[in-house]
Amino acid sequence: MIAIYPGSFDPITLGHLDLIERGCRLFEQVIVAVLQNPNKAPMFTVQERLEQIRRSTLHLPNLEVDFFDGLTVNYAQMRRAQVLLRGLRAVSDFEAELQMAHINKTLSDQIETVFLATSNEYSFLSSSVVKEIARFGGPIDHLVPQHVALDIYRCHAKTHPT
User: Which end of the chain is more exposed for a tag (fewer CB within 10 A), N or C?
Assistant: First the structure.
């Protein structure tokens, strides 16, 4: 069974990695699919995010990293996936995720959404939180892989030279 874990991953966090590793234990293959969203101004390009994810997941043999634009369901169908994998941090995530799962079901009744509760130590973590902390010079090494933290620090050094 193939699962798609879609998202922007800007940047990938230790919470994302926890979900990816757990998904790889549950499914034959997991495809981390980076959404190319023209309406957002990401910190990193799609290619940079793909590379960050690949470097973070070298130890997972049943993982593939790819990108897409358009509807997640269409991408899942193209990749012959049966499952969309999503993480839930809090009740507030559940409402939006459930709505999206219902919408996706109307687009394809062949694809199921599977929710995994985020591990306790990552229940507060999001890419937005990481970017906000970094923007104000706070430490992020405990929130993202080391190489991603270095990328973020370099990115901030370029945009906010001292």
Answer: C
In this structure, is residue 156 part of a structural domain?
no
Q: pLDDT of 34-57, one tens digit each? A: 998 777 789 999 999 999 999 999
Instruction: Please check whether residue 151 lies inside any domain of the structure.
Output: no
**How many domains does the structure of the chain reveal?**
1
Catalytic site residues? Answer: 16, 40, 89, 127
d(CA 125, CA 17): 12
What's the pTM?
0.93
Contacts of 75-82 spanning 24+ positions with Cβ under 8 A: 75/4, 75/6, 75/33, 76/4, 76/108, 76/111, 77/108, 77/110, 77/111, 79/2, 79/4, 79/31, 80/2, 81/2, 81/3, 81/4, 81/31, 81/111, 82/1, 82/2, 82/3, 82/110, 82/111, 82/112
> Domain range spanning residue 42?
2-123
